[in-house]
Amino acid sequence: MGDATVRTRERLEEGAPHPVTEETGRGFVRRLRRPRRPRLWFEILLIALSYWTYSLVRNAVPEQRGQALRNADWIWRVEQQLGIAVEDSVNRAVDSVTWLVVGMNYYYATLHFVVTLGVLVWLFRSHPGRYAATRLVLFATTGVALLGYYLYPLAPPRLMNGGHFIDTVKVHQTWGSMASGDLKNMSNQYAAMPSMHIGWSVWCGLTIFALASVPWVRVLGLVYPVLTLVVIVATANHFWLDAVGGVLCLAFGYAVARVWYGTLPYALPRAVPGGGARRGAWAPTRA
């Protein structure tokens, strides 16, 4: 009777699903989601390739000038109805102060890239455990923005008909901007919605505020996206509502990271074990 019981149990175990396969599958996904030490060469290659792809896709979106101008007129009417259509007043007021508007033109052309790359480098060096998740937020934000450029072509205020706005880069012949002048043909001029100047700057600001340890640096993190908002409006490169679109894209980016990692990027461990993700488990923390 004992032998029969053993044989019956063996047959039942053979017919039952083997738990190792399921655990192996879950373990693979768990390893992908676990913070690991970033590799410099891979990150440089990934960021360069991603930005090249982003620029290629963004500039490949058809420049539907007629539709873009109609959409700009509609945005302007909506803002007037909401009582927030002050972009023309800000644009003309800033343009009357030459040193200020030229400074804003250079701010628009350079800090968008310099600050974003600087935050990525800082994360890579000082917060390796949070780097991948925070970078995922930025990539997802930028990726969904491409849908906006394709589905909703929008002319910036400086290109609207009627002469309401001043193209500050063109008037003051500012070097370095791809929005006007000889470089304008290298960039899609009708991809103003959403504003990635706002999406990226708010990402930088939140990251600095959440992770920096020096109080005045945290304050600068909050000030940076506010200044960026003033700049994109004063230089007539965006409407207020373009900024709203940028924030919505960023919210999508954070949602993607939250779903993938099970927590917000800033709650992940600051550091990763020397052996990478293969040793030990991790738990969300605010180190």
Task: Give a structural overview.
The protein is mostly helical. Helices cover 67% and strands 0% of the residues. Mean pLDDT is 81; it is low at 8-25 and 275-287.
Layout of SSEs?
Layout lengths: L1 H14 L3 H15 L6 H21 L4 H18 L4 H9 L2 H29 L1 H24 L16 H5 L23 H16 L3 H20 L5 H22 L26
Helix pairs in contact: 3-7, 6-7, 6-9, 6-10, 7-9, 7-11, 9-10, 9-11
Question: Would you summarize the structure shown here?
Answer:
The protein has 287 residues and is mostly helical. The chain has helices at residues 2-15, 19-33, 40-60, 65-82, 87-95, 98-126, 128-151, 168-172, 196-211, 215-234, 240-261.
Query: Residue-averaged pLDDT, rounded?
Result: 81
Structural class: mainly alpha
H/E element sequence: HHHHHHHHHHH
From the spread of the alpha carbons, the general shape counts as: globular
